[in-house]
Amino acid sequence: MSAAASIERRAFTEVRTAGRRIEGYAATFNAEANLGAFRERIAPGAFRSALSSDILALLDHDPGNVLGRTRSGTLRLSEDSRGLAFSLDLPDTQAGRDVLELAHRNDLGGMSFGFTVPKGGESWQGETRTLRTVDLKEISIVQAWPAYPDTEIALRSRGHDDHSLRRRRSLILAEVARAIG
């Protein structure tokens, strides 16, 4: 399995624009997300150790569509009492202009983030996982339907090996791709 395949992703929907800057929350703390096979919440401080890393801002989790990064200062991330806040200066590229236009029209699907969980970074209580520490890799502006890939990746991370469920989800994804392609 490639490193990209093991990165988990989650989606949220709070975005604001100001000029060529887009801001909002890529994740919120203590909100419970139903990921199908399990529930998940993010503990305050879960991103703290990752904030000193070079984090990318991507379009639809695509490393070919970099919108900014912390190393260059075009992406700024911080934790506050609500969650993982971001501020992104959009580039004057086709992807940046598209994101800006979709944000102005309120047509974006939301925000998402890609991460891995280090050993000891999670705890379980029944079917609820609490993320206490994550290695943040990227945040993404998601144009449409962020829940489908998140659910599939979340199921793999839980260790379910139900071939029929994965096959059914793959067929749903293929149908969505055909409908929009």
In a few lines, what is going on in this structure?
It comes from Sphingobium wenxiniae (strain DSM 21828 / CGMCC 1.7748 / JZ-1). With 181 residues, the chain is an alpha+beta fold. It is 25% helix and 39% strand.
Give a description of the structure.
The protein is of the alpha+beta class and 181 residues long. The protein contains four helices and 13 strands. It has one domain (3-180). 25% of the residues lie in helices and 39% in strands. The protein is globular. It starts with a helix and ends with a helix. Keywords: Hydrolase, Protease, Viral release from host cell. GO terms for molecular function: peptidase activity. Residues 17-162 form the Prohead serine protease domain. InterPro entries: Peptidase_S78_dom (IPR054613), Prohead_protease (IPR006433).
Domain unit count? 1
Number of E strands = 13
The largest sheet is:
5 strands, mixed
Mean pLDDT across all amino acids: 76
Q: Give the helix tally.
A: 4
Gyration radius, in Å:
16 Å
Task: Sum up the overall morphology in one term.
Answer: globular
Which regions are unreliable across 5 or more consecutive residues at pLDDT < 50? 146-181
Strand order of the largest sheet: 1-10-13-6-7
Give the SSE order as H and E letters.
Answer: HEEEEEEEEEHEEEEHH
How far is the N terminus from the C terminus? 27 Å
- Structural class designation: alpha+beta
The proportion of strand residues reads: 35-45%
- Helix percent band: 10-25%
Question: What are the SSEs and their pairings?
Answer:
Blueprint: H1 3-6, E1 8-12, E2 14-18, E3 21-28, E4 33-34, E5 39-42, E6 56-59, E7 62-69, E8 75-79, E9 83-89, H2 94-104, E10 110-116, E11 122-125, E12 128-131, E13 135-142, H3 147-158, H4 163-180
